[in-house]
From TrEMBL:
Name recorded for this polypeptide: Sporulation protein
Pfam families with a match to the protein in the record: Spo0M (PF07070)
Chain spans, region Disordered: 297-319
Listed InterPro entries: Spore_0_M
Length: 319
């Protein structure tokens, strides 16, 4: 009787341990591994066993934790007393649209045994969310150009995950900083970029926004050097002739062509844009929070331009 009572408070209770086959997975890949359960001092009835993918991000200098998705493993079974142990295999598909892991964005799996009428044993395991291969190829291509990521690169913005670069060595033109947001649509990868250029004899900095459409042929294996050359040539063209940057309407990302419009105002825009953007999956929740702030309040607070011009209100504006 004493053992049963103690187990209810977690002393001598069953233990749970999730073990991933790999420390990291790409978006859309299947996470695999086993959940190991070891019996405690007494028999215990388990109502449910599941793992929840959690995201921890730093938003406006504060740590915010969100549940991404729950993965059921098994329900309604009994764990016998020790030395009983068992391993239950699992296969969870990593959702699309998440931001990749960076110092400011982290993920972990929270595994929980729901024990009837007792304290629930839990387990926490970090997991690296890796970028899609096409995005990784572009990041490597920029690295080969000695464009180095800033310490806060990979932060979340109202338009997805933004990566910030600065030239490690002179490129031969006036680029001070480059920010990139990735947008993926069927058959193409777009880079929505902001170029920070030093202009005039006073070298005053001015921002320009542009779109780079990366040909699919350059995103295949063996095209690394060609991809780097294409990016360098395009960035150089924009930097040396910023007034010639083609006009791009943000409306194409807001509605029909690349996303699904969900209502009006900023809330609808973000909902529609999130579908194709790296890091877009939880933007609504992270932007508006549980208090469901209005689109108007948020746009005023962030100082964002809600016109359909190609203007992010500054990639540096974090959520």
């Amino acid at each position: 009787m004493l053992k049963k009572l103690m187990a209810k408070f977690g002393v001598g209770a069953a233990k749970v341990d999730l073990r991933l086959d790999r420390p990291g997975y790409r978006l859309g890949e299947t996470m695999t591994g086993v959940v190991r359960i070891e019996g405690g001092n007494v028999e215990q009835k388990i109502a449910d066993l599941r793992a929840v993918l959690m995201m921890k991000a730093y938003v406006k200098g504060q740590e915010v934790t969100k549940a991404v998705q729950a993965f059921p493993v098994r329900s309604n079974f009994t764990v016998q007393p020790k030395p009983y142990s068992t391993e239950i295999p699992f296969a969870f598909e990593l959702p699309e649209g998440l931001a990749m892991s960076t110092p400011s964005i982290q993920y972990y799996l929270h595994t929980k045994l729901d024990v009837e009428m007792a304290l629930d044993p839990t387990d926490l395991d970090t997991i690296q969310v890796l970028p899609p291969e096409r995005v990784e190829r572009v990041l490597r291509a920029l690295e080969r150009l000695d464009l180095r990521q800033k310490p806060d690169s990979g932060k979340l913005t109202p338009y997805g995950q933004a990566f910030s670069f600065f030239p490690g060595t002179p490129l031969g033109f006036s680029l001070k900083e480059l920010e990139v947001i990735f947008f993926s649509a069927p058959g193409e990868l777009k880079l929505l970029v902001e170029l920070d250029l030093a202009e005039g004899w006073l070298r005053r900095e001015k921002d320009y926004r542009a779109e780079i459409i990366v040909p699919e042929s350059l995103l295949t294996e063996g095209q690394d050097e060609e991809l780097s050359r294409f990016l360098l040539d395009t960035i150089r063209e924009y930097a040396t002739n910023p007034e010639g940057i083609p006009y791009v309407s943000l409306a194409q990302y807001q509605t029909g062509q690349y996303g699904h419009h969900r209502g009006s105002g900023m809330g609808g825009m973000i909902g529609g844009m999130a579908a194709g953007f790296l890091g877009g999956m939880l933007l609504n929740e992270l932007m508006f929070g549980e208090d469901e702030a209005s689109a108007e309040e948020m746009s005023e607070e962030e100082g964002m331009d809600m016109d359909t011009d190609f203007d992010f209100g500054g990639f540096d504006d974090e959520l």
